[in-house]
Amino acid sequence: MEFSIKILNQLRPILRSFRKAQKLTQTDIAKRLGITQQSYAQLEANPATASLERLFKVLAILEVDIILRERVVDVTKVIPDMKNLASLSQANLDATKVIPDIFDIKKELSYAFDSLKKKR
């Protein structure tokens, strides 16, 4: 399973899902952490209040890795006209034909800016 977490509230159901997938109870995890079941229940109910160290210990018990990566930029926010790309999928156009066109446009704009700089 792979999840993208954007806000801390998303962590609660994910922790629970991984725990159940490992067929572990809250008591099982609490024992491994050296805390009471009630303490672990509070952590699972509100993981935002747990320390990062405690969360890492829980994730290790659940055999879950954290992978950090750069966010993918939403092209439609950078270039408003790119919102029209959504309609391309409705027209059943192949994205592999559209993407190179975007890069060609970027290249042409770059050349235009370079030539304007040279004229100054």
From TrEMBL:
Record-level Gene Ontology MF annotations: DNA binding
InterPro entries registered for this protein in UniProt: Cro/C1-type_HTH, Lambda_DNA-bd_dom_sf
Domain HTH cro/C1-type: 15-69
SUPFAM superfamilies tied to this protein: lambda repressor-like DNA-binding domains
SMART domains, alphabetized: HTH_XRE (SM00530)
Superkingdom in the source lineage: Bacteria
Gene3D superfamilies on file: lambda repressor-like DNA-binding domains
Annotated CDD domains: HTH_XRE
Protein name: Putative transcriptional regulator
Source organism of the structure: Beggiatoa alba B18LD
